[in-house]
Amino acid sequence: MSRKAPEAEKPENHERWIVSYADMVTLLFALFVVLYATSDANPQKLQSVRVSIEQAFSIGVLQGSNGSSAVLNQGGGLTPSLNEIRSNTFEGLNKTLTEFAAANGLEGKIQLRSDSTSITISLADNLLFDSGSADLRPGSVDVLLQVADALRGLPNTLRIEGHTDNIPPNSRDFPTNWELSTARATRVLRVLVEQGGLDPAKLYAAGYAETRPLADNSTPEGRALNRRADIVILYPTIEDLQKALSGSQRR
């Protein structure tokens, strides 16, 4: 009786450990952050760490009634999750600005969108500026102050962007759309800081001319969508948290 030939051994996948290793490193980093924040007996340093985490992740690190850190909830997890915070931030801004737009006949001129890195408040250019101009139209300051009120409680960095269509400006002051878009972004930033009271250290302006269109520039409707001022609320990164914690350790 012949013996059954042994089956050939399947080649091992020697790279499977990379996935597990990456998960372990991520979990260890989160664990050390939580342990550091909850184990320090120095109240001043603990407060510094709490503020650093809030600023880096845009989340509130809750405090117990005795002043201790409540970074962990009863289930043992971070409270709340970053996704929940981002979703709640978007929903809160959307509700506030949608109600303001409806009350002032500005439907369609103030829009919100979000992705994995930011929330963007998009303001139609004819809401703020006349064609080829960087001077604010009457009433536009009130719109920007309403936006500033909605943003005031956020610790995030804000990027103020100017965008145009692909038609060159007919202006002696702005020979190209680069000058026009940058001047408009700077004008919006100044109102948010000088009249809206936002922290200038957390804002910066950028002009993109026609390089980041939302729609096709071949139609009037598309060009109208592309002429806009965007206020971009940037989500923090892991590197931001590391820098914030490093700064708190030096204090």
TrEMBL record:
It is found in: Cell membrane. Residues 116-237 form the OmpA-like domain. Keywords: Cell membrane, Membrane, Transmembrane, Transmembrane helix. Pfam families: MotB_plug (PF13677), OmpA (PF00691). GO terms for cellular component: plasma membrane. InterPro entries: Bact_OuterMem_StrucFunc, MotB-like_N_dom, OmpA-like, OmpA-like_sf. SUPFAM superfamilies: OmpA-like. It is a single-pass membrane protein. The chain crosses the membrane at residues 21-38. Its main location: membrane. PANTHER family: LIPOPROTEIN YIAD-RELATED, STATOR ELEMENT OF FLAGELLAR MOTOR COMPLEX. Belongs to the MotB family. This is Chemotaxis protein MotB. It comes from Tepidiforma thermophila (strain KCTC 52669 / CGMCC 1.13589 / G233). The lineage of its organism: Bacteria, Bacillati, Chloroflexota, Tepidiformia, Tepidiformales.
